[in-house]
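Notes from hallway chat w/ T.B., transcribed later so I don't forget. T.B. wanted the structure written out for a chain they're using in a teaching module, and asked if we could keep both sequence and structure tokens in one place. Agreed to drop them here.
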Amino acid sequence: MTTISAPTLRSFTQLFVGGRWVAPSTDDVIDVISPLTEQVIATVPAAGPADVDAAVAAAREAFDHGPWPRMTPAERGEALARVGDELEKRLDELVASFTAEVGGPTALSTAFHTRAAAGWREMSDLIDRTVFEEERSGPGGTGVIVREPVGVVGAIIPWNGPVTTGSNKLRAALAAGCTVVLKPAPEGPVATLILAEALSAAGLPEGVVSILPGGRETGEHLVSHRDVDKITFTGSTAAGRRIMALCAERIVRVTLELGGKSAGIIADDVDLSSVIPTLLPAGVGHSGQVCAAITRILVPRERQQELLDALVPAVEGMVLGDPADPATQLGPLVAERQRDRVESYIRVGVEEGARLVTGGERPDGPGWFVEPTVFADVSNDMRIAREEIFGPVVCVIPFDSVDEAVDLANDSDYGLSGAVYAKDPALAEAIARRIRTGQIAINGWTICGSQPFGGFKQSGIGREGGAEGLEAYLETKWIHRG
């Protein structure tokens, strides 16, 4: 492991409600604990029900009577581009905050936040290409299709990429003309409050955005609020079920981006040396705390050992340690409970009869670390192959034919991401088209970006990113002229 240094982080004493920094309604605070040192490194206010009520009231007023939904799309696009510029100005602090709070290595954090800033400017460009009104005529008469903002949006995001995920939701909702109350997770709130500073500096109108860090109770109050028109949530499938049930009570629009157990299929014609450079970060990058991680590696049975001979040295050569150290490739897990969860699954894998090839231990020293772990001879019906672990654990599953590999990949409750590695591009695309998943890469791996991202089955409902992500925040109205 690399040398460990104590991180420092800025604390906050106010909440961002309707574009203003205000005192919280209670004295409750969130202690931000370093996953590296296991010590408190910052505090932020914990939003209570009264803070949610105030934020929703501000959003409601801004949507019903304020200028934001009534601006031209081009005017909104200019404001979104300014947010991207303001984020870029704060890049260094955003990177440092995320690294300290969540434990993501500096290179990963830099990529996340550079991407987040660029996404705001890309959404500004997308607005210019979006048709918000369309004349139509037909046998039933003539009229106009109008695409209007859905209203007040409640957005709930996880800790594993709060500014990236928060930006995905905010920029699409704002581009549509919605107003938003964003609730980040208590494990990564500081970076999202720096995002609030960028939003404030960009000059968005009063009431348009609020950012309220808090726990589950805060999220449930937001989801259940009668003045919220749409909920967008990224997180676990279990939490998504609860949110969907609450939304069903009021027939509230909902977008869910949930868990994954994605498969990477390796064809028998591919050079394995070309696979490892993307397969390894896809599986254990960010210590496996990525919903779209490729955690099931499907390989021809006769090539399983060849794959392990290439994969295991690469895994064992990864540098664990202080995420602020540029040499570090894997930081700690975000919380002690997350480390306990990952270790429990490693024990389950051994008990189920999978072969533990490497990893599975805690390195010496402080921090919530787990070594990157590889299981081989895994059966697709084992729990470690079916349940989302959200840690640096990958399962190598052998197959005997391409048809069996497709069946194994699709034999999952999830369908979020995936990859196909093949020398023959026609074969790779043919396999990719048979996998029931929201996104799949050929000879590589990708996540989010500017294209639609979301899942099949229990990986969620709806898409984020691209034109499809913007459409999720629009309602369609037909005005019939006769």
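Follow-up for T.B.: The radius of gyration is 23 Å. Might be a good example for the class.
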